[in-house]
Amino acid sequence: MAKIQVMSDLLANKIAAGEVVERPASVVKELVENALDAGATEIDIELQQGGLELIRISDNGSGIEPNDVPTAFERHATSKIRDDKDLFRIATLGFRGEALPSISAVSRVEIKTRTEDSAAGTFLRIEGGKVLDTGVTAAKKGTELIVRDLFFNTPARLKYLKSIQTELGHTTDYIERMALARPDVAFRFFHNDRMLVQTSGDGKLLHAVAAVYGREIVKQMVAVEWQNYDYRITGLTGYPELNRANRSHCTFFVNGRYIRSYQLFNAVQAAYHTRLPINRYPVCVLHLELDPSLVDVNVHPTKLEVRFSEEKDVFASMQAAIQSALQTETFIPKALPSI
Ligand code: ADP
Ligand code: MG
């Protein structure tokens, strides 16, 4: 027998899962991104025991055609790109066709899905990469995925997971960021049957920020609304009195994508100038929109940094946007309707 052999799909998926699925939060991320790519406007996320026992995501998106359901769990199977030309105009969050095969390689998955046009829904159960059962079922339009016993067949991975609280924290951070990134989508997030996050999906960032940070915080913030030829900056930033002991209370989205950026944070900080006490930092949620050619979004999905081609302009714009917001007298509380 030859020494070199092509590995089975089952084994390949298990290895790929090591890269795609690190912890419950990465499963949630992949499945929420699939729901958003399917055009969902309502997404429910439910965890039991930090997601170690169960992760359930349901959406009201397009659903999957009956014949496509088993294919969706195959490696490199995607409806999002067809040829290499598509690679340079990706408009979806996913495109690699790796999430479903990877997740189902290391857990017990149940999917229920129905498209607008099909009379009945489809279900499929798959465990450790092996399909157990599939057929017709009653289902509402959209998709529901249940992931149980994550890493049940990869004990080394399972051991690496942290406490329920730590794992829950990772997922909560992610859901809160998505809620702020997509005020047009109604998110509901439950842990052990307790609701932790709920947004209305009415498209107003103000309401999403109030839902995530609380109304009291929002009352201490002003709206940011600034634009020039190249850049548009919108969001909320806190009055100097609303300050924090570390830098982690400013959230930035570039063209709708969450990023980490010292540059942007420093620009915000510079706008506050001496209005903040020493060693205290602002609170903000800001969306920056610009022509995609002016920003290099690292194509690796887990990389959160971006590079701007006109760094100085971006810095100056952000500083100007915050400065002008802090000068306005229109305080948010007056504009804050009942939420
Ligand atoms: P990718 O997102 O990279 O295409 P995935 O493995 O995450 O790969 O999903 C495979 C395919 O299954 C997707 O391309 C999509 O067609 C379908 N799919 C997955 N989740 C959903 C969902 N929630 N709603 C509709 N279709 C979905
Ligand atoms: Mg995907």
TrEMBL record:
It comes from the Bacteria. Residues 209-327 form the DNA mismatch repair protein S5 domain. Keywords: DNA damage, DNA repair, Endonuclease, Hydrolase, Nuclease. GO terms for molecular function: endonuclease activity. Belongs to the DNA mismatch repair MutL/HexB family. This protein is involved in the repair of mismatches in DNA. It is required for dam-dependent methyl-directed DNA mismatch repair. May act as a 'molecular matchmaker', a protein that promotes the formation of a stable complex between two or more DNA-binding proteins in an ATP-dependent manner without itself being part of a final effector complex. This is DNA mismatch repair protein MutL. It comes from Effusibacillus consociatus. The gene is mutL. The chain holds residues 1 to 339 of 619 of the full protein.
